[in-house]
Predict the 3D structure of the following.
Amino acid sequence: MSWTLFKANIRGIRTIWILMTAVYIGYFAVVLSMYDPQSTQAIEQMLEMLPEGLLKAFGMERVGDTLLSFLTIYMYGILLFLFPMVISTVVNHRLIAAHVDRGSRAYLLSTPNSRKKIVATQALFSLASITMFFAVITICALGLSEIMLPGEMETGDFILVNVYSLLMYYAIGGIGFLASCIANESKVSLGLGIGVPLTFLELQMIGDVGDKFSWLGKLSLYYLFQPEQLIEGASFAYVSMAVFVALAAVLYAAGIAMFNKRDLYL
């Protein structure tokens, strides 16, 4: 691994990473402030005033009766699919494909580092950036919950939900990394890196609207993310976690292999 390249990557993405992490933690604080085990009935009455299809599309048609179940509904649904997706897409695009537009690809290849070392460094950084995102929000969320709602958080299960989320984003990151490695143009990398996860999100939302379209939701990678089942100890969640790991391994390995075989001097 090239530490020089790794540190350069940190400088390149730190602004967007810090911004998205801070905003997500801010949302956590807002959602935590909304939780009151004594007023869940009032929240349910408020939700009944909104269109049923809209609530189902955003996965907010019910209210959790514990802090953890409340968070899985309001923080580990649409917000989880969007915020880390931005970091993952931007990071993976900048690691490989963006060098084409900046004209720095030739510079990278002219350094003493081998092509394999360069792409391995970029793959490791891709995984590290999203791992750090989930590590930070987990620690901050646990701290905020203890300050605002002492004793309410089921810490072990909450950490497990975040591990589940992280593994899902390894797979999503693998899509962006592979797109960055195979794209000849920067816009293609961004199109695939954003387009594929957004397509999964749209399928998930359509599938949640009603039984008529539920089969569409099952075509989405996000269908495998069911934190409620993880909390209940259902095998589906653990199988899904294994699928995420396997898919991420295949996608990152494919990206590395494609990068090593490409003619990058054209």
Remarks:
- The CA atoms of residues 170 and 248 lie 6 Å apart.
- The two ends are 25 Å apart (CA to CA).
- Residues 3-261 form one domain.
- Residues 115-148 form the longest helix (34 residues).
